[in-house]
Amino acid sequence: MYYDEAADAVLNNLNTSEEAGLSSGEAEKRLDKYGKNELKEEEKTSVVKLFLSQFKSFLIVILIAAALVSAFLGELVDAFVILFTVVLAGVLGFVQEYRAEESIKLLKSLTSPEALVLRDGKEGKVPSSLLVPGDILLLQAGDRIPADARLLEALSMKVDESSLTGESVPVEKSINIFPPETPQPDRKNMVYTGTSVTYGRGKAVITATGMSTAFGKLAGLLGEIERDKTPLQEKLDQFGRWLGTATLIVVAFVAILGIIEGFDPFEMFLWGVALAVAAIPEALPAVVTVGLALGVRRMVKRHALVRKLPSVETLGSTNIICTDKTGTLTQNKMIVEKVYANGTLFTVTGEGYKPTGDFFRGDSPVSKDIHLHKLLVTGTLCNDAGLVEEEGRWDIMGDPTEGALVVAAAKGGLWKAVLEEKHERKGEVPFSSERKLMTTLNTSEDGLYAHAKGAPEVILAACTKIFLEGHEEELTPERKQEILGIVNDLANKTLRVMGFAYRKVPEDILPEEAEKDMVFSGLMGMRDPPREEVKVGIATCTSAGIRTIMITGDHKTTAFAIARELGIFREGDLVLTGTELEGLGDREFDEIVEKVSVYARVYPEHKLKVVEALKKKGYIVAMTGDGVNDAPALKAADMGIAMGITGTDVSKEASSMILTDDNFASIVSAVEEGRNILKNIKNFIAYGLTCHIGLVLIVLVGVLAWHTLPVIAVQILWINLITDGLPPMALSMEAPDRGLMKQKPTKAKEGLVSKRMLIASLGLGTLIAVQSIWVLHNSLSNGVPLSKIQTLIFTLVVISLMFNAFNWRSERYSVFSLGIFTNKSLIYAVLSTVLLQLVAIYVPIMQIAFQTVPLSLSDWAMIIPLASTTLIAMEFVKYLEWRIHR
Fold first, then answer.
1. Which SMART domains is this protein grouped with (predicted)?
2. 227 half-sphere exposure, CB direction, 13 A CA radius
3. Which residues contact 297 (CB under 8 A, 6 or more apart)?
4. Bigger pLDDT: 592 vs 663
C-alpha cells in the first residue's frame, strides 16, 4: 500500500536506495519480472469482423432469406434490390465505425516518453517504458508522472490529478504517512501515472508500473466491461422478429386459403412469397443507416463526433445524463472572480485565461485604483506562473492558482514580464503546505520590497498594518475580524481565497525576516467557474425530461454549490460522497439512487456503480467526462460522451461520442438530433405498415369474396420496390418537429411502433383496402377486364401511398403547418415514384412484364380523388387531436 508506511520501510520493501537508486543490472532483472511500463491495448476488432458485425440483426437475416427465395423463384430484380439495400446499409455502417475508430488514438499518449531517474548513483534520463518498481524518480514542475510512486521528498510540490480524480485544484504533496483507510485522492504522499507536476519539485520511489498502476487498473477495468446493444439495435431486432413472425403467419394463412379456394398451388406460393417480401421492409436497414449517417454529418457540424451509428439514436432516448464537473460543467481553469481591497469588494469579469475583462465596484467599472494596483503587483511578483499566447489561444504555465493571479493582473493592465523587468527578484521563501505562505524580495524605484501571498489567516498574522484610503494604517483586531468575515463569505461561495501583503525592507534583510510587520493589501477569491452555456443546456435538458446528475472527484461543498448554481440540485435531492456510497449496501443504494443528484469525492468504481444502478432501474444513461477516472463509466453507460479538447485518450477510447468543443450545450444539440432520427425511423415504419396492411387486406378480401387476385405477385413486388425506396429516404431527412425538446424521452421498453401509430397505420391501410375493394367490386359489376381492374388497383395503391408519405412527415403536425415544400427531397421522391408507375403502365415492354394496360383520363379522375383521402383522413385526425389538446 506504501502510503501508510514510513519512507525507509518502503525503500526496504522495494530493495532500493534513495541515494543511489537501482543498479543497471537490477533494473534489467526487474524489467524481465514486471514487464515494460506500458498499458496493454484492448484487442481490436479486425476489419473483417467489423464489417460482418453489420449483418447480425434478425431483420437483416430475414431479408437475406427473402432475397434467396426470390432468386430461386426467378425474381432476380427483386433479389438484387433486397441484397443491394442490405449491403448498402452494412457498408455505410462499417465505413462510419472504421473511420471513427481510426480517429481515436491509443492509450499510450498519456505516458511520458522519458523520465529523470537515479541509477547506479547517477542522474540520467530513461525511456518511461523501461522504468521498474524501485527506480528513484526526480520530479520538477512541468513533468508528467510516468508511474505510480511514493514521495521521499516534496518541496512546495503540487500535482494536477484532475485526469485521474476529477479534482480541479492541484493537490499539495507531502511525505507524511497516512492511515490505511485514507481514500486515494487524499494519499498526498503518492503520485500517479498520467498526472503532472505543476509546482515545486520532489523525489519518489516507483511502486507500480504498467497495468499495476492506478491508470492501468482503470484500463483493465475497461476491458472487463461489455457494451450493451443500443436501444435502437434492440428495437430493430425486436421489430424484425415481430414483423417476420406476423408476416409468415398471415401470408401462410392467405396462401393456404387461396389453394383451398381453387387457385393454382404454385401461383399461390409465388404470390405468398411476393406478399411476404412486400410485407418485410427491406429498405428499413438502409433508411435507418442513411438517416443515422446524415445525422452524424449534421452532428459533426454541431461539434459532436459519433463513433458508432446507432449511438446517435441512443441520445434521443436518454433520460439521465451523468456528468463530470471539472472541464465539463466548469472551464477547468482557475479564475479570479472577487477582489477585496480598501474595504471594498470588486467583481472581476472575463473568460478563461484570456487577459480581457474589467473590475467593477458594484455596477460601476473601475479604471484606476491605487489599492487594486498595489494588490495586483504583489500577486504578480510573488508568483512563479506565466501567461502565454499560442496561435491566438491564451494559456498559463505553472500552477493554475498562481496563473489566475497573473491573468487578473493582466486584466488590470499589469503584465508580469514588464513588472519583473522593473522589479527584479532578489530573494524568496518558497511556499510550503506547512507554512501556507510564499514571500519574494523585489527591487523598486524607492528601495527593496517584500511581497507575500498565502492563506488569509497566515497573512493577517504576519501583518500589523493595512493599506486604506491611500495610507498605511494600523491593522486593529476589529479590522482583522472584518477581513476574516469577508474570507468566510467568499469561501461559502466556493471561492478559494488568498491574502496578500507587502513591506518595504532594508537592502541586507534575509527573506525569512521579511515575513513580519507587513502591510495587508487585500484578498483575491478564485474558482473554476461554470461554463456560461451549461446552465441553459441543463435547463433545456430538464424541459426535455432529461435529468442531469453531477459525479465529481471534488469536495462535497464545492460540488453542491456548483450543482445548485447550475440547477442540477433541486429541493429534496440528496448529495452523496464516495465514502458514504461505499458504506451503503446494494439494496440501500437502489432505494435512494433516483434521489441523488450530486456525487462528490468519488472514485472510478463509484461512478461505475452509479451508472449500473441507474441502468438497472430502466434508465437510458449518458455519461460525460474527460479524465482517466471517467473511462469505465463512459464505457458502461448507454452513451459515453468524452471531451475532445481536454479529454484524455483513455476517455475518448471508452466513449461512444466525442464533443469536439467540450461544450455541454453540444449534448443538447446531439439529443435533439437523436430524437429526430428516432422520430423519422418510426414515421417511416408507420408509412410502410400502411402499405403492407393494405395489400394483405386487399388480397384477402379479393380471394375470399370474389375468388380473384386484385394484384398479381409481380405487381406486389413492384409496389414494394418503388414505394419502399425513395420516399422513406426522403422521410429520413425530415427536420425536427417544433417542441421536440419539450417532449419526454422515449421509454426504454417502448417499441419502434407505438399503439397510436399502429392504429393509424391499420386505419389508413384499411382505408386503402376499402377503396381498392370498391374499385374491384364496381369494375367486376360493370364487366371490366381483369387486367384493367388489376392495373387500376395496382396504381391506386401506389398513388395512395404517395399521399400517405406526406402524412408521416410528422406524427402530430399537419403537413400544411409544416409547409408542403419544406422537405423538397420528399417532393422529388414522390414525383420520381409516380413517374416510375407511369412507366409500368404505359411503356409496352413494362406492360408485358407487369400485365398492365393503359389508363384513361377518366380512370385517373377516379384514382386521384380516392387516393387523396389517405391524406385528408389523417389531416382530419390531426386536426381533432389539436382541438382536443390545445
1. Cation_ATPase_N
2. 20
3. none
4. 592
Distance from C-alpha of 426 to C-alpha of 408, rounded to nearest angstrom: 24
Pairwise CA distance, residues 625 & 606, whole Å: 14
Q: State the span(s) of the chain assigned CATH 1.20.1110.10.
A: 231-303+672-885
Average pLDDT over residues 505-516: 90
In one letter, which amino acid is 301? K
854: three-class secondary structure by DSSP: coil
Residue whose entry in the numeric block shows the C-alpha cell 386505419: 763
Which entry of 324, 528, 554, 724 is annotated as an active-site residue?
A: 324
7-34+114-224: CATH topology: 2.70.150
Domain 335-527 in this protein, CATH class: alpha beta
Q: Residue 394: CB partners within 8 Å, gap ≥ 6?
A: 352, 353, 354, 355, 387, 388, 407
Comparing 468-477, 673-682, 832-841, the range with the smallest average pLDDT is 673-682
Handedness of CA 576, 536, 674, 331 (dihedral sign): negative
SS3 readout for 703-754: HHHHCCCCCCHHHHHHHHHHHCCHHHHHHCCCCCCCCHHHCCCCCCCCCCCC
pLDDT digits (tens, 9 = 90+) for 343-400: 999 999 988 899 999 999 988 999 889 999 999 999 999 998 999 998 888 988 888 8
Angstrom distance (rounded) from CA 413 to CA 401: 19
User: Is residue 40 helix, strand or coil?
Assistant: coil
Averaged pLDDT for residues 203-224: 79
Residue written as grid cell 458504506: 583
Confidence of residue 739 (pLDDT cuts 50, 70, 90): confident
Report the distance separating Cα 367 and Cα 171, nearest Å: 35
- φ/ψ of 640, rounded to 5, equals -90, 125
d(CA 598, CA 603): 14
CA distance 286 to 282: 8
Q: Quick check: is 324 catalytic?
A: yes
> What is each CA distance from 815 to 551, 770, 833, in whole angstroms?
44, 24, 20
Residues 398-444: tens digit of each pLDDT: 888 899 999 999 999 999 999 999 999 999 988 876 788 999 999 99
Q: In this predicted structure, what is the pLDDT of residue 757?
A: 85
> Which pLDDT value is given to residue 359?
96
CATH classification number, 314-330+532-668, choose in 3.40.50.1000, 3.40.50.300, 3.90.640.20, 3.90.850.10 = 3.40.50.1000
Query: 231-303+672-885 domain in CATH 1.20.1110.10?
Result: yes
The cell for 648 is 484524455
Give kind and range of the element (H or E) at residue 576.
strand 574-577
